[in-house]
Amino acid sequence: MRTKRIQFKEFSDEELFFEVKLDNHHAFEELYRRYFYRILNDAFKRLRDRDQSEELIQELFVNIWLKRHQIMVAKTFDAYLHTSLRNAVISFFRKNDKVAEYPANYTEQEDKQATYEEIAYNDLKTAYDQSISDLPEKCRIAYELFESGMSIQEIANTTNVSPKTIESHLLKARNTIRQQLRDFSAASSFTFMISLLEQTFDLI
């Protein structure tokens, strides 16, 4: 089971969604991990409310899972997801009688920002990946295994070291990555997204 989760990281979005339509929840988890923070950042830009943004994105993914057999992705999963997000935001404004707050040129603004946001997101991902690559080897291995879904005890068994040592490696990895992302955020517009990424480190 663990091996399947690791392999899914190499799948394209479309390959993952094909697996989702076959009721593979591990593939769904990978799509969720791949896109959650990215579209949450987009939702927050529109709603300017963290709790409402998180709730909207959670509902969006729940609906994707529940309607997985009916959903037809015409182009790419990324395009489908952003179209779904746009529709969800419109629905939110209408349902909450906030139509006046909804920008009339939403689609136009979104198109203009798309290239910039893609570049900014790719820069963030590059910074994140680089921070992992820069870790000492033992810390990096422990962190990557933890990210793949293994527990501290499982990592300890796999690497033949004590759980306490693994905890130490993960703590060092967390602090190093967090600091590098903070340095990156000082020169980017992804402060909110990075703060969300940091919350995941608190689960270690």
From TrEMBL:
<dbReference type="GO" id="GO:0016987">
    <property type="term" value="F:sigma factor activity"/>
</dbReference>
<feature type="domain" description="RNA polymerase sigma-70 region 2">
    <location>
        <begin position="31"/>
        <end position="98"/>
    </location>
</feature>
<keyword id="KW-0731">Sigma factor</keyword>
<dbReference type="GO" id="GO:0006352">
    <property type="term" value="P:DNA-templated transcription initiation"/>
</dbReference>
<dbReference type="InterPro" id="IPR014284">
    <property type="entry name" value="RNA_pol_sigma-70_dom"/>
</dbReference>
<keyword id="KW-0238">DNA-binding</keyword>
<dbReference type="InterPro" id="IPR007627">
    <property type="entry name" value="RNA_pol_sigma70_r2"/>
</dbReference>
<dbReference type="Pfam" id="PF04542">
    <property type="entry name" value="Sigma70_r2"/>
</dbReference>
<dbReference type="InterPro" id="IPR039425">
    <property type="entry name" value="RNA_pol_sigma-70-like"/>
</dbReference>
<dbReference type="InterPro" id="IPR013324">
    <property type="entry name" value="RNA_pol_sigma_r3/r4-like"/>
</dbReference>
<dbReference type="Pfam" id="PF08281">
    <property type="entry name" value="Sigma70_r4_2"/>
</dbReference>
<dbReference type="GO" id="GO:0003677">
    <property type="term" value="F:DNA binding"/>
</dbReference>
<comment type="similarity">
    <text>Belongs to the sigma-70 factor family. ECF subfamily.</text>
</comment>
<dbReference type="InterPro" id="IPR036388">
    <property type="entry name" value="WH-like_DNA-bd_sf"/>
</dbReference>
<dbReference type="InterPro" id="IPR013325">
    <property type="entry name" value="RNA_pol_sigma_r2"/>
</dbReference>
<protein>
    <submittedName>
        <fullName>Sigma-70 family RNA polymerase sigma factor</fullName>
    </submittedName>
</protein>
<dbReference type="InterPro" id="IPR013249">
    <property type="entry name" value="RNA_pol_sigma70_r4_t2"/>
</dbReference>
<feature type="domain" description="RNA polymerase sigma factor 70 region 4 type 2">
    <location>
        <begin position="128"/>
        <end position="175"/>
    </location>
</feature>
<keyword id="KW-0804">Transcription</keyword>
<keyword id="KW-0805">Transcription regulation</keyword>
